[in-house]
Amino acid sequence: KAGVTQTPRYLIKTRGQQVTLSCSPISGHRSVSWYQQTPGQGLQFLFEYFSETQRNKGNFPGRFSGRQFSNSRSEMNVSTLELGDSALYLCASTRDFQNTEAFFGQGTRLTVV
Amino acid sequence: GENVEQHPSTLSVQEGDSAVIKCTYSDSASNYFPWYKQELGKRPQLIIDIRSNVGEKKDQRIAVTLNKTAKHFSLHITETQPEDSAVYFCAAASGGSYIPTFGRGTSLIVHP
Question: What is the average pLDDT across A90-99?
Fold first, then answer.
């Protein structure tokens, strides 16, 4: 069974640009969550999608947005990039909305210059 | 919302020693407490989890304890080995949101 796949693995963008990251969950998993990981801040929750609907959202500005497609694949978009957006962005998929194991992707390393 | 505090941020031990990482949570509705291990350059992976109806759970050299009254839960690793070196994250999730809130992580270093 293929794991959670995130693309691209690395991105370098300039301040002010926008970026789109992609996450393909494990087959059969319908919930996808996104996290921002920075040194010392741990894993900060961005948002979660289930069956194409955003069910939960973390405390991030509106520049961060996402969506989920009918095949459960998810994208997140960051507009007007700032230097502080440089981070590892991880997505995780779970089978459903019960408290079960979240499987993480390898992440996308975003560097804003 | 939920707030998870994790201590220490760095833990250095000698091979063979035990390591303990402690977390506290704020939301009394939280009922699921997973622990993830993230090795350098790799994705976080679940190593053990506990639910609120259980006080302790063991899996070989690792164990997790939960004190619901005090809102504390801890990870215990015995007979540490160099391959245990990683960042460990605790998390808490409630039946309401099902989204785990993570602690800031503990960098465990096991010296041979």
Answer: 81
